[in-house]
Amino acid sequence: MYAQIRCNVLSTCASELEAIFKTAGVEFVGLLEPDPETLASYSDRLYSGKTIEIIELIDGLSRMFYLASLQTPIKPGGELEPEFTLFFNVNSREALQVLLRVIGKKRIRGKRYRHRSGINFAISFLGSLLFSSLLNTKNYFLQSILLLALTLLIYLAIDYPLRAPLLQRH
Question: pTM of the entire structure?
Fold first, then answer.
């Protein structure tokens, strides 16, 4: 899991997050402004087949990463509300290294994911409206059911998470 949390003061958020990890008894690594290679170097230490949480704290000027390998995910609350959360299916240490490098290079941003479900639903509704109008059934009830079924099918097809070949085990 990768979560990005925007903070007013980075040190305040960092101490709150560290307190959450310590009370849960979780070992973690905190890195202030790491370069992508340093971030990727922790993949050997973290990868154990369990859930890995990558939490990025940002305040506009700097950023800090917390890396933890957990049995169950921790949900920070209060001021530590994530701007976005992304889940990745990582099957090898090499894939985790690649993912950490991509995150370290700031290539993953949550702005495009924030409204993704709403946009996907709108696209699926418009597509199903167009397709069901082409079928032109005489029964209004059947037309409505067809519209809803097509909307659901198109939405599931668009929103279904695809595995990136780079993150799969070879």
Answer: 0.64
